[in-house]
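Glycosyltransferase
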Amino acid sequence: MTTILLAVFLVFAAINLTYFLLFFRFASGNNPPATASAIPVSIIICAKNEAQNLNNFLPSILEQEYQDFEVILINDASVDETLEVMEKFQRIDGRIQIVNVENNETFWANKKYALTLGIKKARYQHLLFTDADCVPQSKHWIHEMSGKFHDEKSIVLGYGGYFKNKSSLLNKLIRFETLLTAIQYFSYAKLGMPYMGVGRNLAYTSKQFYQQNGFATHLHLRSGDDDLFVNEGATEENTAICYEHKGVTRSVPKKSFTRWIIQKRRHVSVAGNYRKKHKVLLGLFYISQVLLWFLFALLAFTRFWQFSLIVFAVVLIIKGILYFKAAEKLDEKDVVWLFPIMELFLITTQFGIFIANIISKPTHWK
């Protein structure tokens, strides 16, 4: 029985290691620089009860050094002063257009409906999406993202990180999870299998949007305006990636574990709607992560403990190198040093989220 356990451990250690070796395609590779883009861009921000964040962060959008852009601000049935803040900024900057969305019985609290109205309002074909609590990390964010639109590229996947709080363990966990997610979706895109993007930093053309009939296939789902849209329409030919520091956005992370779990439950709830091949690949990766740790823990109490420890250590070392290289690209190096603890805690948390979502599904985007 112990021998069988060891064999299974070696199989899943090999599977897990294979994934991380494939991820080196992103971590060690280079990304072609942005072209000298001069295309007009519509920046679209959907906000629900974001008055304070708009006051704090909208100026960083308006201060972008780019010759031709507009900002579409969507007030998604807010009950705070979001609309008033939008109107204040519109009075001082003519590039701002406002879409005021009121709830109705058919599309109650549906972000995709609000985004669709915003996209229809846009004057320009190239659309760049971010959130109300996001801040571009340079004044060249629009240039970096829009510079990836060339030839047949109609979807651009960017990196949306979070602000750092060195004294917060939760902050490190959130940023480690964000780093791992980015490693996966950038790596899959580089391998010719793009499967998701994040709405904090995402771009696509209006032509792409209308060719897919917008969010029609998943409009009934409260989440997925970013990852499900990309999963449905992204291909090796039409997708580009942008992870240069000047093209990154960062946003305010959740400050309580409970609120972060609620956010992750929304994100995880849509994964079951991915294409079958993506569900299989992502599911196998997660299973290999779980069984690597679980089987090693069991083998630690057998006569094979020394051999198992060597195999486990080799896998961790290679994963550590990958994490460091990727974190260096995305400016997240401070979360790498605790990666074994972070990885184990994240695996456990994801399992809890999976169980919680089986019991009840999240119902609102915010």
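thats it. The chain has two domains: 2-27+276-359, 41-255. The chain is about 50% helix and 15% strand. bye
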